[in-house]
Amino acid sequence: MTGSASSDEDTATILRRTVDELTQTVALMSSGNPDEFYDIAQRSTKYGSVNPENGPVLLEKVERGKVEVADGKDGEAGKSTKASDRFGSVQGMMMRGLRRGGEGGMS
Q: CA–CA separation, 105 vs 46, rounded Å?
């Protein structure tokens, strides 16, 4: 095996792990049931790739955002508060980047 082939395999493995972590993080943030993350059995099954230190921080930010929207403190009226509405689906963006062979989409 050449050095280049090994490097390509390493890059593919790292990319797969990153995609898994991002996909699971998005699933956690949109689950509506943050207690799943604090249940070790469910966390290891559903969110095993989510950083255990970052998960609670992200959940707190999601909860804080929900409260602000409910209180009418979401900034400018009429604008979408959902990140997916503003930026598109993370999974869709990642898949487009993978189809292009990883060029330009991620660095």
A: 26
Do residues 46 and 36 make contact, with C-beta atoms less than 8 angstroms apart? yes
pLDDT in tens, 3-49: 677 888 899 999 999 999 999 999 999 998 889 999 999 999 999 99
Within a 10 A sphere around the Cβ of 105, how many other Cβ atoms? 14
User: Is the CB of residue 55 less than 8 Å from the CB of residue 26?
Assistant: no
Whether 68 and 74 have beta carbons less than 8 Å apart is answered as: yes
The 10s digit of each residue's pLDDT in 56-85 is: 999 999 989 888 888 887 555 445 555 555
Contact 105, 92 (CB under 8 A): no
pTM over 0.70: no
User: DSSP readout, 55-92?
Assistant: HHHHHHHHHHHHHHHHTT-SSSTTS---HHHHH--HHH
